[in-house]
Automatic annotation (TrEMBL), chains A, B:
<feature type="binding site">
    <location>
        <position position="192"/>
    </location>
    <ligand>
        <name>L-homoserine</name>
    </ligand>
</feature>
<dbReference type="GO" id="GO:0009088">
    <property type="term" value="P:threonine biosynthetic process"/>
</dbReference>
<dbReference type="GO" id="GO:0004412">
    <property type="term" value="F:homoserine dehydrogenase activity"/>
</dbReference>
<dbReference type="Pfam" id="PF03447">
    <property type="entry name" value="NAD_binding_3"/>
</dbReference>
<dbReference type="GO" id="GO:0050661">
    <property type="term" value="F:NADP binding"/>
</dbReference>
<dbReference type="InterPro" id="IPR045865">
    <property type="entry name" value="ACT-like_dom_sf"/>
</dbReference>
<keyword id="KW-0560">Oxidoreductase</keyword>
<dbReference type="InterPro" id="IPR016204">
    <property type="entry name" value="HDH"/>
</dbReference>
<dbReference type="Pfam" id="PF01842">
    <property type="entry name" value="ACT"/>
</dbReference>
<keyword id="KW-0791">Threonine biosynthesis</keyword>
<dbReference type="GO" id="GO:0009086">
    <property type="term" value="P:methionine biosynthetic process"/>
</dbReference>
<comment type="similarity">
    <text>Belongs to the homoserine dehydrogenase family.</text>
</comment>
<feature type="binding site">
    <location>
        <begin position="10"/>
        <end position="17"/>
    </location>
    <ligand>
        <name>NADP(+)</name>
    </ligand>
</feature>
<keyword id="KW-0486">Methionine biosynthesis</keyword>
<comment type="pathway">
    <text>Amino-acid biosynthesis; L-methionine biosynthesis via de novo pathway; L-homoserine from L-aspartate: step 3/3.</text>
</comment>
<dbReference type="InterPro" id="IPR036291">
    <property type="entry name" value="NAD(P)-bd_dom_sf"/>
</dbReference>
<feature type="domain" description="ACT">
    <location>
        <begin position="350"/>
        <end position="424"/>
    </location>
</feature>
Length: 428, 428
């Protein structure tokens, strides 16, 4: 019998408990698949007594995750506490210093400190694996790092925050405004303690930044990302988009351009009949494009106990099997620092604005767009029993710069009420 | 600089040439990702002079693939010749005996000899990898073997023969009969030299048998599969199915049941709005279900130079990185010999038959179904300006046995003309 692989699991929330359950339930299967027993040496969490639906008595206990990370009987430190800094980072660093491999689900920590942690791990001859940090149970990190290793990756796209997709699809199907559905989602426990992580696009942005690093061989650069949440999406936008054959998704796109690395996590209109457009509820979907493979699509549950624990187990089993792949698919020191593209690729945009309902208003808007160099594909004015009328414009391909220019122009017309909404159309 | 990984590539058809191109084009990238140069030591094919769009002059040449497999300067034998036996098998065996790792795209060879080859490789301490054998560029072998390694896999399903899906969707969209579209596909070069490999479901069946072995820890058992091709699917069936909200797919399903391992590769009706139902043209789609991860779906090109070469490269890079996973995810000697389920799980069925257009005909059919214990969900008779009328029946859940019983009954009624068509409805 080969020597067991012994885990120290820090964090016993939903995912941590899920990992413990799988190991308790599938011990024999895991041994068969990895060639060695996978055992839990010890665990750590904030409170010891809480009922987590699993028997923790067979395992050692540490109050301090750093102490857990340093235990002599631990080979792999499994970090499931979360938080970009604080105990998660301290314990991860301690684990690496103590010569342990690390498995983590912590997208925030890696998005902000991934380069330093990866370099430290490689110096120590250890690996950091993070399948569970991106798109839950979908093995997208593996598909990109290993499955597409023979490709020059051309683009990574995806819907990677289930909560946002739940909110957007629920608004559409129930005809409910954002605030109502937000409250529903909160009551259902779908939102992070800080909801901005979800609805502000930050959580999804962290995930995209990690995939972009692997895809393009660049250092993680979360701060170089164009980031916009779904808080300003109204039920009207969703309806108007549907009228034109689109659905609104919080869509991540990363691609290398002549102007640098473009990373966006923003609401987009996508064709309603495309695989992304058809994505319902909390499901995640990632599209990977490579020069040889073309486009592959992966779809599955992006969160939840089982799916996320499944991803953690995949990393653990890889380590048990002896697989050693660098954190971001190539040695951290060889990752380049590609400049962030200052302007994103041109695209058509959907614009919605409220106009004073008086003669010449529409002409003024059209003139502003023309001055900004934006040509109009479709324009539609709705009749309403109020003093303002919503106007929709679908532009031909244009840039954010031109749009910002137009925004300023709108303010000077005296007929545009409030701030226009502009949503990129990703015609995939 | 680490020692290079040196390949011997046997077979320079579309896929082989594609692999050579990727290595020539992406040398630096591959070295960065795998930590060592990936080089071609020598190649082999039936004819040396043919123009394959790649410069082969830098590489050694062997007329005999067995000699290639045994070369001292080869670490990995890349078998891209095809054919379940003959040179492919001889060279693969020679490579293993000579201590080489093997990468192959050969589903037929592995579906028929996978157990023996895997055992030989493991005895020799070598690996056999076959990502390219299943679903082209989609990294489904990796997703299942590694990504879902923490799961008890409950079911594997998929559309894994692009040619069949092309034929079925083309029939539907163009309203053309099977024979016409078959000829088209043949002219387009979509069909194997022996078309039965495609339209008879054999090629897709080979793929499913390989996935089932990984999923359930069982020895590959292609002969235990229920296999039916698409040759008997008529444009009428496709239209009737569409009327009822279904599309016809050549669908593979593998699941472990109380009665043994169920493996089917047969035409099925699937809901038109499901991800499988929406699959167009030559695209492949695989659904993997695990007890932790739930259902994940992978979609992409199932064939072609780039996608298949991408999969071959994934295996090569894994070997270059030092990844060693047993052929079927666990040591070949630990794979069990699960009995094949004699009868497949009960399901609703679509039946189409031609009835003599005379009083009492329909009643006779209904009576036969009742006698066979098959209850009717929907029944529809079409009017035609001829002496027979097509009748469609959608049954409630029933078994193949009951259907076979009913078939015999139909023959005795004297009103059923020809052989009824029965297609399983997979309500996923």
């Amino acid at each position: 019998m080969n020597t067991p692989l012994r885990l120290g699991i820090a964090g016993l929330g939903t995912v941590g408990a899920g990992v413990v359950k799988i190991i308790a339930r599938h011990g024999g299967l895991l041994t068969q698949r990895s060639g060695r027993p996978v055992e839990i040496a010890a665990v750590s969490a904030r409170t010891r007594d809480k009922d987590r639906g699993v028997d923790l008595s067979p395992y050692g206990w540490e109050d301090d995750p750093v102490a857990l990370a340093q235990r002599d009987d631990v080979n792999v430190f499994v970090e499931l506490m979360g938080g970009s800094d604080g105990p998660a980072k301290a314990a991860t660093e301690a684990a690496i210093s103590a010569g342990k491999d690390v498995v983590t689900a912590n997208k925030a920590m890696l998005a902000l400190h991934g380069q330093a942690l990866a370099e430290a791990a490689e110096t120590a001859g250890r690996v950091i694996r993070f399948e569970a940090a991106v798109a839950g149970g979908i093995p997208v990190v593996k598909a990109l790092t290993e499955g597409l290793a023979g490709n020059r990756v051309t683009r990574v796209m995806g819907v990677m925050n289930g909560t946002c997709n739940y909110i957007l699809t629920r608004m559409e199907h129930a005809g409910l405004p954002y605030d109502t559905v937000f409250d529903e989602a909160n009551k259902l426990g779908y939102l992070e303690a800080d909801p901005m992580l979800d609805v502000g696009g930050i959580d999804a942005g962290h995930k995209l930044a990690l995939l972009a690093a692997i895809a393009f061989g660049t250092q993680v650069n979360f701060h170089g990302m164009e980031l916009e949440g779904i808080e300003r999406i109204s039920i009207d936008d969703i309806r108007h988009a549907a009228d034109m054959g689109f659905r609104i998704k919080l869509l991540g796109v990363a691609q290398m351009t002549g102007r640098g690395l473009e990373q966006r996590m923003t609401p987009c209109l996508v064709p309603a009949t495309s695989p992304l457009g058809r994505l319902e509820n909390a499901t995640n979907m990632v599209l990977l494009e490579g020069d040889a493979v073309g486009q592959i699509i992966l779809r599955g549950a992006g969160a939840g106990e089982g799916p996320t624990a499944s991803a953690v187990m995949s990393d653990i089993l890889d380590i048990a099997r002896g697989t050693r792949v660098p954190t971001f698919g190539q040695p951290a020191r060889t990752l380049t620092t590609a400049p962030a593209a200052r302007v994103s690729t041109a695209a058509p945009y959907y614009l919605r604005m409220e106009l004073e309902d008086r003669p010449g208003a529409l002409a003024k808007v059209a003139m502003v767009l023309g001055d900004a160099g934006i040509s109009i594909n479709r324009m539609r004015q709705y009749r309403h029993a109020r003093t303002t009328a919503p106007v929709l414009v679908v532009t031909h391909k244009t840039t954010r710069d031109a749009l910002d220019h137009a925004r300023k122009g709108f303010a000077g017309t005296g007929v545009v009420v409030g701030e226009p909404v502009a949503i990129r159309i990703e015609d995939i």
